[in-house]
């Protein structure tokens, strides 16, 4: 459930930062955020992966059991890092107001949190005799 709530938090902040968000889907918000520079390409990729997981859970196609606790904790931490970063940047103007502002030149803290692949975590469980 924490993964779902953390992704809802990202969606809420994206809606507050994108002036023409209206009833756009999370997919559209992520694309708009990436195009405007609110999100880095890596953040957008992470959020699209999270969006697919959230959708599967919300529609009963998967459960929280598909994620290890370590993977879930990483997603929650990264989601809230993105929320923190989004809260520190200006909103994106309405698309009808003209061209988008230049991409923001800012430090991407999530780059340190998002490995190329999620590592296998040793939970300390050992077979008897090992």
Elements, N to C (H/E): HHHHH
SSE-based structural type? mainly alpha
Rough shape? globular
Largest sheet: none
What's the number of extended β-strand segments? 0
Number of helices: 5
Strand content: under 5%
The helix content, as a percent range, equals: 40-55%
Task: Quote the distance from N terminus to C terminus.
Answer: 35 Å
Q: What is the arithmetic mean of pLDDT?
A: 75
> How much is the radius of gyration in Å?
17 Å
Describe the structure.
- This protein has helices spanning 2-17, 26-36, 41-58, 69-87, 110-113.
- By secondary structure, the chain is mostly helical.
- α1 packs parallel to α4 and α2 packs antiparallel against α3.
- The radius of gyration is 17 Å and the shape is globular.
- Mean pLDDT is 75; it is low at 103-107 and 115-130.
Short summary of the structure?
The protein is mainly α and 130 residues long. It has a domain of 79 residues.
Supply database-style keywords.
single chain, 130 residues, mainly alpha, 5 helices, disordered C terminus
Mind sketching the topology for me?
Layout lengths: L1 H16 L8 H11 L4 H18 L10 H19 L22 H4 L17
